[in-house]
Amino acid sequence: MLRCMLKAKIHMATVTESNLEYEGSITIAEDILKETGILPYELVMVSNMNNGERFETYVIPGEAGSGNICLNGPTARKGVVGDRVIIFCYGYFEESALTDFSPRIVRLDSNNTIIRP
Length: 117
Hints:
By secondary structure, this protein is mostly beta strands. The protein has a single domain (about 1-100), classed as Barwin-like endoglucanases, CATH 2.40.40.20. It contains 1 helix and 8 strands, in the order βββαβββββ. Strands 2-6-3-5-4-7-1-8 form an 8-stranded mixed beta sheet. β4 and β5 (about 55-60) form a beta hairpin. The chain is globular. The model has no long low-confidence stretch (mean pLDDT about 95).
């Protein structure tokens, strides 16, 4: 049996840009993606802490080190610059692979810099 599990989470990212004229997606700085293992064009769910909106879209990589978190296309209507969001990525796993399973969780400060434990 496959189980859908949280694979990765970007916790408390700050929206840095909103681009209504783009065709869709969320831009996430490449260094943040690498830390979580989220791939370009992978499906993510975004939860906006400021307004309660929750939506799904796909990821496109932004410039590494930029801290860029940009809502593109229709998702630009789901939040504004300065909103704090949590980005979830789920995956399907065989039950046998879940014995020592844990998601990759990355916490960000208000500048979208990775907080190291």
